[in-house]
TrEMBL record:
Keywords: Membrane, Transmembrane, Transmembrane helix. This is 2TM domain-containing protein. Residues 10-90 form the 2TM domain. The chain crosses the membrane at residues 21-39, 51-68. The lineage of its organism: Bacteria, Pseudomonadati, Bacteroidota, Flavobacteriia, Flavobacteriales. It holds the Pfam family 2TM.
Amino acid sequence: MEKEQHEQYEYARKRLVQKKHLNYHFVVCVLGCLFAYVANHFFQMGAPYQWYKWLICIWLFVFILHFFKVHISDRFMNKNWERQQIDRLIAKQQNRLRELETKYGNDNPPA
């Protein structure tokens, strides 16, 4: 397998694992929220308070963050993006070094 094909395979595998974990997180979230609701309403756990609403809000917030990471930020900020940013910064640094060399010359004072 060529290097480019191998990188594509690794990227696809990584995305698949991320999506699998997101689906697992969704199922656990739904079951956990359902359990919290049943425990609070039917088993009277923490009866005077409706604590399950807070748990559901927090869990959904964490799930939304996970969803954002998998489907939005990781899609755009992947290895290719990192490589492009590194190349851009290296080119910028090399241009700055060339400017300094032309401005001050390559003369090193003798020690």
